[in-house]
What we know:
alpha/beta; Rossmann fold; 2 domains; 4-stranded parallel β-sheet; 306 residues; binds zinc ion
Amino acid sequence: MKRILPVLFALVALASFGSAAEAKLRVVSSLQDFASIAQSIGSDRVETLALAKGYQDPHFVDAKPSFVLQLSRADLLIVAGLELEIGYLPPLIDQSRNDKIHPGNPGYLDGSVGCDILQRPTTQVTRAMGDVHPYGNPHYWTDPENGRVVARSIAARLSQLDAAGSATYQKNLAAFEARLTQKEAEWRAKMAPYAGTRIVTFHDSWPNFAKAFKLDIVGHVEPKPGIPPSPTHTLEIINLIQAQKVPVILVEPYFDRKTPDSIAARTGATVVTFYPSVGGTPAITDYFALFDTDINAFVAAVKGKK
Length: 306
Ligand SMILES: [Zn+2]
């Protein structure tokens, strides 16, 4: 007994040290946007990381070996869903051998649930459509009200996984929502003078943003989502921009500017880099800065043209 007791004490000490070190829930998201929201809700009870960076095309992410290790340690995986991550994530989840984060388990959260999802298919989906948006538009977090829904889902799931932190998560959620409400009023006021502005975007990333801020998307530089520009389609877009007096072409930071720049040169429209995600540029440090940056860029580009 004399020998066992110190060993027991040492084990208890180790265990408590271990639990202190492991107290933080490990949250992994496919997107920096949801990692940012999860960090706001989880504060010091969570550590968050994102697989895709905000300056990368979220449909086509290069799977790094480190992703498997990060997933193997995760307590919660938050995805955009609607097959945004279909090109890289499912095999990584399998390779992580982490049952907690398998779809259907509490450690897997699909952020799209409960959100306002646009372009839901009304006919049977087939791959022959060549579409990367088969189950509706997956860029839904560009509507801040969907960000609110995601924040609520994250708070509920964190509370389920870590009941001891529930009061903290609810308090942080309330603070997040209060700030979002205040910022939305500011953003809507800035965008109000431009309601109804016709825009062209490179990829179909912005229907939720356009709905939230009353813009009218009349065309895309891509003939279909995920299909690169073609000469015939580019000519159609040039004609469309001229006919409808479209002032701006919004381009996500990860696309080649060659075609949009040539369209701009032919039409007088202004090409604006528009960031769909947190981390798209270093200034976009959180979900609020995302809208601040894009809305300021939009207003600066359109102001002189109205
Ligand atoms: Zn897309």
